Amino acid sequence: MPIAVDIDVMLAKRKMSVGELAERVGITPANLAVLKNGRAKAVRFTTLAALCEVLECQPGDLLRWEAEEPDVARSAENTEPESATAG
To answer: Which residues partner with 4 through β-bridges?
Structure first.
């Protein structure tokens, strides 16, 4: 996924546990784990704001964009030699 989540980094900097963060933000530890591990499809701005408030950070400290790795199969299709035609 091109969006990487760095909640672990901020938790370490703040010396805070996942359970404490979840409690202070008002979400379940399971939902926080889904977000933290990059498996979330979306995050509400209210949740992001609460995370930033509790962790005393900016949204960019928690989320960053990464270029996706090119798909090996797709790149192989593009590198196959074209068939020669006599004409």
So the answer is: 64
Rg (CA), the chain: 20
What's the N-to-C CA distance of the chain in angstroms?
45
Instruction: Please give the DSSP secondary-structure letter assigned to residue 59.
Output: H
pTM: 0.76
Task: Count Cβ neighbours within 10 Å for each residue of 27-58 and write b for 16 or more, e otherwise.
Answer: beeeebebbbeeebeebeeebeebbbebbebe
CA dist., res. 53 & res. 66, Å (int): 25
For 13-61, what is each residue's pLDDT tens digit?
999 999 999 999 999 999 999 999 999 999 999 999 999 999 999 999 9
Distances (CA, A) of 2 to 14, 18, 87: 26, 23, 45
